[in-house]
C-alpha cells in the first residue's frame, strides 16, 4: 500500500528501515520462470510418488524391486525373491509398505538445503527470486517452529546412507534374469545402475556430508585424508542442484520402469 510506504507502516520490505522503493522488483528478465518450473517439477514428483506409494501394487517384477518399496518392512509385501524383505512391522501394518521406508529418503530431500531453497521460492514465494520482494510482511527465516526443524537434515543424512546401501544391493541383484540366474543384465539393470550412481552422487554432495567430512577442523594440514575427501565432496557439492533433480527423476523413472514390467506393459529387453 503506497500510504503505508509513505508512513513506513508497511511490513516486510516496506518497513520504514528499508529503502522506499515502490516497485516490487526492478528485474526485467523472466525471473519467474525458474520458480515456476521448480514448482511444476516438484508438484509432478509429489503427485507421482504419492500415487505410487499408496498404490501398494506393481512394485516387483523379477528380478527388479521398485526403489519406492525397498526394503520391504511389513508382512504384506508381495513375495519377492529379490531385494531385502525384513518383516520388522509384522502383520498389523495394513497400509502400503512403501510408507514405512519412504519417510527417510523423503525427509532427507524435504530438509535438503537445495530443496528448501527450491520450494521456499516455488511454493511460498519467500522470496520468489533474487532481488524480487517477497509478499510476506514478516520474515523469521528458519528460527521458529516448524522451520527450525529443518536442522534435523544432518540426521536424515545418516538415515539416507543405509537406504542408498540397500538400493545398491538391489542393483547388484538386478544382474540376474527373471529366473534368478546370475550374470545377466537387462535394460532395467542399466536403469538401476544409473539411478544408484545418481543417488550416491546426490547423497555425497550433501552440505551436511561436506561438514561431517571436513568441518570443525582447525588445521587441514593435520588431517590430509579428511582434506582430500572434503575436496572431493566439495566438487560434487558444486553440482548439488543438478544431482538433486537428476536423482529425483531417476528414482521415479526406476519405479516407473518396474511398474511397466509388473503390469505387463513392457518386456525388459535383455542386454546379455
Ligand atoms: Fe541437499 Fe543435504 S543439503 S541433501
TrEMBL record:
It comes from the Bacteria. Keywords: Membrane, Transmembrane, Transmembrane helix. The keyword Transmembrane applies. The chain crosses the membrane at residues 31-51, 92-115, 155-175, 181-202, 242-262. This is Integral membrane protein. It comes from Streptomyces purpureus. The lineage of its organism: Bacteria, Bacillati, Actinomycetota, Actinomycetes, Kitasatosporales.
Amino acid at each position: 500500500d503506497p500510504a503505508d510506504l509513505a508512513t513506513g507502516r508497511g511490513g516486510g520490505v516496506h518497513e520504514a528501515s528499508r529503502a522506499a522503493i515502490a516497485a516490487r522488483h526492478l528485474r526485467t528478465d523472466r525471473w519467474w520462470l525458474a520458480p515456476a518450473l521448480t514448482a511444476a517439477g516438484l508438484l509432478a514428483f509429489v503427485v507421482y510418488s504419492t500415487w505410487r506409494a499408496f498404490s501398494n501394487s506393481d512394485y516387483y517384477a523379477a528380478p527388479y524391486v521398485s526403489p519406492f518399496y525397498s526394503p520391504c518392512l511389513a508382512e504384506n509385501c508381495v513375495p519377492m525373491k529379490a531385494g531385502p524383505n525384513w518383516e520388522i512391522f509384522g502383520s498389523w501394518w495394513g497400509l502400503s509398505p512403501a510408507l514405512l521406508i519412504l519417510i527417510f529418503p523423503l525427509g532427507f530431500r524435504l530438509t535438503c538445503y537445495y530443496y528448501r531453497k527450491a520450494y521456499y521460492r516455488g511454493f511460498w514465494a519467500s522470496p520468489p527470486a533474487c532481488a524480487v520482494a517477497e509478499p510476506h510482511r514478516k520474515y523469521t527465516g528458519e528460527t521458529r517452529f516448524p522451520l527450525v526443524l529443518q536442522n534435523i537434515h544432518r540426521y536424515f543424512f545418516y538415515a539416507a546412507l543405509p537406504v542408498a546401501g540397500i538400493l545398491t544391493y538391489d542393483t547388484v541383484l538386478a544382474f540376474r534374469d527373471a529366473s534368478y540366474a546370475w550374470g545377466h543384465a537387462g535394460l532395467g539393470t542399466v536403469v538401476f545402475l544409473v539411478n544408484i550412481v545418481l543417488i550416491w552422487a546426490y547423497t555425497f554432495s550433501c552440505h551436511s556430508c561436506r561438514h561431517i567430512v571436513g568441518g570443525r577442523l582447525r588445521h587441514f594440514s593435520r588431517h590430509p585424508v579428511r582434506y582430500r575427501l572434503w575436496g572431493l565432496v566439495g566438487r560434487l557439492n558444486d553440482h548439488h542442484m543438478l544431482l538433486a533433480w537428476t536423482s529425483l527423476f531417476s528414482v521415479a523413472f526406476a519405479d516407473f520402469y518396474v511398474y511397466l514390467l509388473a503390469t505387463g506393459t513392457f518386456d525388459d529387453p535383455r542386454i546379455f
